[in-house]
Structures are given as structure tokens and as C-alpha cells.
Design a protein that fits this description.
There is one protein chain. This protein has 464 residues and is of the alpha+beta class. 30% of the residues lie in helices and 24% in strands. The chain has an 8-stranded mixed beta sheet. The chain has a 5-stranded mixed beta barrel with strand order 1-2-3-5-4. The chain starts with 8 loop residues before the first helix and ends in a 20-residue tail after the last helix. The chain binds 4-amino-1,4-dioxobutan-2-aminium adenosine-5'-monophosphate and magnesium ion. 4-amino-1,4-dioxobutan-2-aminium adenosine-5'-monophosphate binds next to β11, β15, β16 and α13.
């Protein structure tokens, strides 16, 4: 057996019958009778299994007994045309190596369907299910498509820091990073924590966004993007919030808000198109199992023009609707996902890019409009998800930016480096952030964000 090279199941299923092959993987099911056993083997390369046909008389009974769901085996044999339905080829086993047993009494992933809640409690094993295999392969494909998209457009992948001393969104939802002894915290003369004794000599946190550093990159390299983990200590226990999530943040010099919207729409459509072109096996499975409208929803997003709508117009539509919202709407409130989804799913029936929000509900860096009340922010709102992208044109004027920072009482000492971009060679520029897991919610049709990331971090949960 060891003379043969292993072929992945994905390749075997496309292969022509009539040759000796070696497959390795985990047993999904074993069925059959005294004389013959049929093993469905999966190695993660595809949602599909390869069928192994075992003539029981040729193998040790003890070995066959140990080949149970979850066990890991290697099988060599002849790849032959399959007479059974559902597969074109199968392997007639000649030799079987048992790498690892999986005790049927304790292996939790037996054949029967499991709830998503149960699978979350065994996140270390759930990649072995069809559903999570599909989701994780799509997650990989989307990450690849993102780098490919920006590479083709000449954007530079900029690595922004994960540990930072600035709060980009100004929401105070940061996880602190410290090496101080929490049982014996050094204090200053005034009784405050003495961060000068901390590892970095100042107070630091995990980043909520790479944008501010991304802007520095754009003001030198022209067009950059980040793609990394971000952290938010917001106590939001919802199907759309994680405490650790991945974000893609392009930032472009010389783009105004309209250019920004055009890029965001093209970007997200191209990612969905990529999934339709490259992940169809997995999408079909998810479509059949969870969400019968998944594929048609993906196709419709690719083929439709997103609506452009100002916040003020959006509020008017919501106020005029007869819908009973949990949170009432009026000009000035931050929209909830119920409002966003009403506009997208019921009113327009397609994605919406909403712009020109009240400045008081948006971050300090957004470009201020002439009216003195609104800023040139934009959110892309999606069916089933609500906000999938948040972005804006940035305030390029030194004076206006400084005034806003002062108005909000933000400590400008820690932002001098950022303000320097406006001091030296400022330029109009824009950018946005796409929540990677929100994108995956949309593309996979999963309904909980904890099910599109391998190891979710949410309030009171940091297993593994
Ligand atoms: O709207 P947000 O907070 O915008 C920013 O962070 C900007 N600095 C982005 C930029 O302009 N460069 O977050 C952007 C996106 C949201 O639209 C959402 O998709 C996602 O990040 N997001 C989350 N995803 C999962 N869990 C959370 N707790 C999230 N918070 C935001
Ligand atoms: Mg936002």
C-alpha cells in the first residue's frame, strides 16, 4: 500500500475507473451484511464521500469491527465504476490500514442529525460534519477570493497592528492588553493605574479595526486593504455578533463616497459570484439542508443593482410603513437590524447602500456634510443579515477633523500620528469594512454567526 501515493477523494471522484488507488480519511458510515460492507469515506477535500466496497471474507473480522463511524483509515484498491446510485466510482478494497479507532459508545458524531447548538458544544469535532466541512471550505474560498480581488486591482495588503493604543470606533469596547499583576496593580500618586509600568509603557488594547493605520497606508501606497482579526468587547449576544471576528478593510486615496459605493458593490458581488462558480457542491448541500432559497438569493444579489438611499429617506420610509418595530424609529436614532431588514427584504427586495447618517451616531473620522448634521458614511445592508459593510468618505480637512476630535472629548495626544495625514499632503479618501463572518452568513445561509467561524468567541465563551 505504501508504494501508492494518496489521492484526495475530490480527485478520485473525478477520476476514470481501472487503476490502483490509495485513499485516506474518516469513516462517515459503514453498512452492509455478513459478506460485504460499504464504507462511506470522507477526507475533507469535498462534501462527497468515496464508497469503499469490502469483501468481508478477505479481511480480518476484528479489523472490520473496528471500522466504525469516526474511525480513520487508509484503503488501497481498484477504482471501479460504481453500480450503485449516487456515485460514479468506488474502491474495491484490497488492503486497509486502521489509523485510529473511534469508540461508538463515546464518539459523539454518530449518523443521526445533530442540532447546531449541540455541535457548537463540540466545536473541536464539528468540522467532521458535512455542514461544517462545507462552511469551512467556503470560508477558505472566500478568503482566497478576497486576496485575489484586491491583488487584481493593485491594492497592497497592509498588516495593521493587533495590539494598539487607539480606539478607532471610539465606542470604548476594547479588550485590554496588559502584563501588570492584576492582584497588585501599580498606582500613580493620584491613585490611577500606572500604565507606565506596563509592558508597552502605556494603556493598550486589542484592535477594533485596522482603519486608522489603513488610512496611513492609503496616503502613501494609494490603495490598500487589511484582512485580519478584530476584537470587540461589546456584550451583544446576537446571531450576528462575535467578540473576535475577521474584517476586510480597503482604504483608497482619491475615492469619494460614490467611488467607495461602486467598489463595495462590485467587491461583494464578485465574492458571491466566486462562491457560485467554485463552491457549488457545498452550496447545493447547504441549500438542500438549511435554506431552500440560498442559491437563488446569491444569484439575485449578483444580478441586481443595489439601491442607493440616504438615511433621511430611509427614516421616512420606515416611519410611513405600517410595520410594528420593537425599537421605534425617528430621525437621529441608530438603525436596528429589524429596520435594516425591513428596507432590504420587504420594501426594496434587494441590497441597499444607505448614506449620510446623523453625525452623532457615527465615528469621528467620517467626512462632514455641508448641512452640519450628517456625515458621508455608508452602510451596505443585506437580506437576512442587515449591516454587512460599514464605511465612509473620511474627513480630509485638518481643521474639521481636529474640531470633531475636540468636540467628542477624545484624547488627541494618542491620535497625533493619525492627524499628521491631514497635516501633510492630505487628500480625499474613503474606505469600508466588510465583516468576514457576516459575508459568510450570507453566502452559506447559516443563521448564527457562531457557525461560520471554527472557534467562536462570544460573551462567556472562549473554549479551545
Ligand atoms: O461598522 P463597523 O464598526 O466599521 C468599522 O469598524 C470601520 N472602521 C470600517 C472601515 O470603514 N474601515 O464594522 C464594519 C463591519 C460591520 O459592517 C459588520 O459587518 C462587521 O464589521 N462587524 C461585526 N461582525 C461580527 N461581529 C461583530 N461584533 C461585528 N461588529 C462589526
Ligand atoms: Mg457599522
Amino acid at each position: 500500500m505504501e508504494k501508492l501515493n494518496r489521492t484526495k477523494v475530490k480527485e478520485l471522484l473525478k477520476d476514470k475507473p481501472g487503476k490502483e488507488v490509495l485513499a485516506k480519511g474518516w469513516v462517515r458510515t459503514k453498512r452492509g451484511n455478513k459478506n460485504v460492507a460499504f464504507i462511506a469515506l470522507n477526507d475533507g477535500s469535498t462534501i462527497n464521500n468515496i464508497q469503499i466496497v469490502v469483501d468481508s471474507s478477505k479481511f480480518d473480522e476484528e479489523l472490520l469491527k473496528k471500522i466504525t463511524t469516526g474511525a480513520c483509515i487508509g484503503v488501497s484498491g481498484n477504482l471501479t465504476e460504481s453500480l450503485g446510485s449516487g456515485q460514479s466510482v468506488e474502491i474495491q478494497a484490497k488492503e486497509i490500514i486502521l489509523y485510529g479507532e473511534a469508540d461508538p459508545n463515546s464518539y459523539p458524531l454518530q449518523k443521526k442529525g445533530h442540532t447546531m447548538e449541540f455541535l457548537r458544544s463540540i466545536a473541536h469535532l464539528r468540522p467532521r460534519t458535512n455542514t461544517f466541512g462545507a462552511v469551512l471550505r467556503i470560508r477558505h474560498a472566500m478568503a482566497y477570493a478576497i486576496h485575489d480581488y484586491f491583488n487584481r486591482k493593485g491594492f497592497v495588503y497592509l498588516h495593521t497592528p493587533i495590539i494598539t493604543a487607539s480606539d478607532c470606533e471610539g465606542a470604548g469596547e476594547m479588550f485590554q492588553v496588559t502584563t501588570l499583576d492584576l492582584n497588585n496593580i501599580p498606582k500613580t500618586g493620584e491613585g490611577k493605574i500606572d500604565f507606565s509600568q506596563d509592558f508597552f509603557g502605556k494603556q493598550t488594547s486589542l484592535t477594533v479595526s485596522g482603519q486608522l493605520e489603513g488610512e496611513l497606508g492609503a496616503m502613501a501606497l494609494g490603495e490598500i486593504y487589511t484582512f485580519g482579526p478584530t476584537f470587540r468587547a461589546e456584550n451583544s449576544n446576537t446571531p450576528r455578533h462575535l467578540a473576535e471576528f475577521w474584517m476586510i478593510e480597503p482604504e483608497m486615496a482619491f475615492y469619494d463616497i460614490n467611488d467607495n459605493m461602486v467598489l463595495a458593490e462590485d467587491f461583494i458581488k464578485s465574492l458571491v459570484r466566486y462562491a457560485l462558480e467554485h463552491c457549488m457542491d457545498d452550496l447545493k448541500f447547504l441549500n438542500d439542508m438549511f435554506d431552500k432559497e440560498l442559491i437563488s438569493r446569491l444569484e439575485s444579489v449578483v444580478n441586481t443593482e443595489f439601491v442607493r438611499l440616504t438615511y433621511t429617506e430611509g427614516i421616512k420610509i420606515l416611519e410611513a410603513s405600517c410595520e410594528k418595530f420593537e425599537y421605534p424609529v425617528s430621525w437621529g436614532v441608530d438603525l436596528q437590524s429589524e429596520h435594516e431588514r425591513y428596507l432590504v427584504e420587504k420594501h426594496f427586495g434587494k441590497p441597499v447602500i444607505m448614506t449620510d447618517y446623523p453625525k452623532d451616531i457615527k465615528a469621528f473620522y467620517m467626512k462632514q456634510n455641508e448641512d452640519g448634521k450628517t456625515v458621508r458614511g455608508m452602510d451596505v445592508l443585506f437580506p437576512k443579515i442587515g449591516e454587512i459593510i460599514g464605511g465612509s468618505e473620511r474627513e480630509a480637512s485638518l481643521e474639521k477633523l481636529e474640531n470633531r476630535i475636540n468636540e467628542l472629548g477624545m484624547g488627541r495626544e494618542s491620535l497625533e500620528w493619525y492627524i499628521d495625514t491631514r497635516r501633510f499632503g492630505t487628500a480625499p479618501h474613503s474606505g469600508f469594512g466588510l465583516g468576514f463572518e457576516r459575508l459568510l452568513l450570507f453566502v452559506t445561509g447559516m443563521s448564527n454567526i457562531r457557525d461560520v467561524i471554527p472557534f467562536p468567541r462570544t460573551p462567556k465563551n472562549a473554549e479551545y
